[in-house]
Amino acid sequence: MVLNQKKLAYYEKKYERNPLEDTLKFMSNKWTLHVLRDLFLGKSHFNEFKTNRPSLDNKALARCLKTMQDNDLIYKTSDEDDVKNTQYFLTEKGRSLNRVFYELLLFALDNDVDNEHYTEYAKKELREMYKEILEID
């Protein structure tokens, strides 16, 4: 453990950064992972991201979306004639998180050790469904 800490301190000093820390910084917003998941599932409109999230207000969502745009995870399209037709989509960089989401799914399924929530059949179905949704080879 001490060796790992020393290595990390060395690389942080050498490169003046920690890539994992940098990523966690912009991913740690309360809503970022939820919005990313929604984008993978096909949602694209502002109000769709708020569905079933009563504690997510417009200001917090707008900030979250702006940060995600600034970090090149998503891009925004707007219809000049219809402001309500603004949509958000994943960039290539954003889509590259597909494996992270798939690994999170596998973690959840693999740690349902007592089959408390999912049968083995349901786990298999979920794995296949998310492979398709997340475009995992």
Question: Please, could you describe this protein's structure?
Answer:
With 137 residues, the chain is mainly alpha-helical. Helix content is 59%, strand content 11%. It has eight helices and two strands.
Helix content: 55-70%
Radius of gyration: 18 Å
Low-confidence stretches: none
Relative strand content: 5-15%
The SS-based structural class is: mainly alpha
- Helical stretch count? 8
**Biggest sheet features:** 2 strands, antiparallel
In whole angstroms, the N-to-C terminal distance is 35 Å
Instruction: Output the strand order for the largest sheet.
Output: 1-2
Mean pLDDT: 89
Shape: globular
Strand count: 2
Task: Please describe the structure with a list of short key phrases separated by commas or semicolons.
137 residues; mainly alpha; two-stranded antiparallel sheet; 59% helix; globular
Write the layout of secondary structure elements.
Blueprint: H1 2-15, H2 19-27, H3 32-40, H4 46-50, H5 58-70, E1 74-79, E2 82-90, H6 92-95, H7 98-110, H8 120-133
Antiparallel strand pairs: 1-2
Helix pairs in contact: 7-8
Structure summarized in a few sentences:
With 137 residues, the protein is mainly alpha-helical. The protein has helices at 2-15, 19-27, 32-40, 46-50, 58-70, 92-95, 98-110, 120-133, and strands at residues 74-79, 82-90.
